[in-house]
Input
Amino acid sequence: MSQAATVDSPNQLTIEQLAAESGMTVRNIRSHQARGLLAPPEVRVRVGYYGPGHITQLRMIRDLQAQGFNLGGIKRLLDEQRFRGALAHIRDERPATLTVGELGRRFRIEPAQAPAILARAERLGVLVRAGDGVYEVPSPSLLAVAEEAVGRGIPAAAALDVFEAAERHCDAVAQAFVELFVAQVLGPFERAGMPAERWPALEQATERLAPLASGALVAIFERRLREQAEAAFGAVASRIGNGAGTRSGRPAHR
Output
């Protein structure tokens, strides 16, 4: 094996070795690669190297052909699989499970208020009924924010008001970023015929979509929150100052 193939990488097979491992001819491998069915090799010193992932892809192609799929249908299946894989970079939380009693204690919900608050949390998707007296929490981190808000004196119903407004606005922001991604990244990729050599770039762009969107959203939100808070606190300070001036018998401002 050449020195170039000894680097720390799972891709260590030349195309001839890949053919021997997969049971396909070099010609078939090159044909599948040209059709976009096979991911491109890792190129080192102008030599392409393949690995276990390529063997898996070739065996899948062979199995699908044996089931009667033509190469066009196989490409559509593989493209769909790769799209789903690219979307896996967008983080999804592991759900938690809580009982009604636990929710009541953590969020200081009075028994008389519980049915209405739980029903509203279900409508918003904050909770999902998982059985008698048991709820699944799709986003434990969101629930942790709600718990902290309640701990600082904000009623659970008021916290849900804010979550509902935030969800409505976040839907619009998420849609704007997805439309931008589709227009500027996914659209050109599709119009180019989804060439295999451009899949890694698409996957990297998809991986960065959520961090870029959330980074921009947080930066803008923090600036607007500071401006809104300064205005609100300024109004309260002004009322306090005016009240103090009136009580002392002197005007608040000279």
Summary: Residues 43 and 53 are 15 Å apart (CA to CA). The beta strands are 42-44, 47-49, 96-99, 128-131, 134-137.
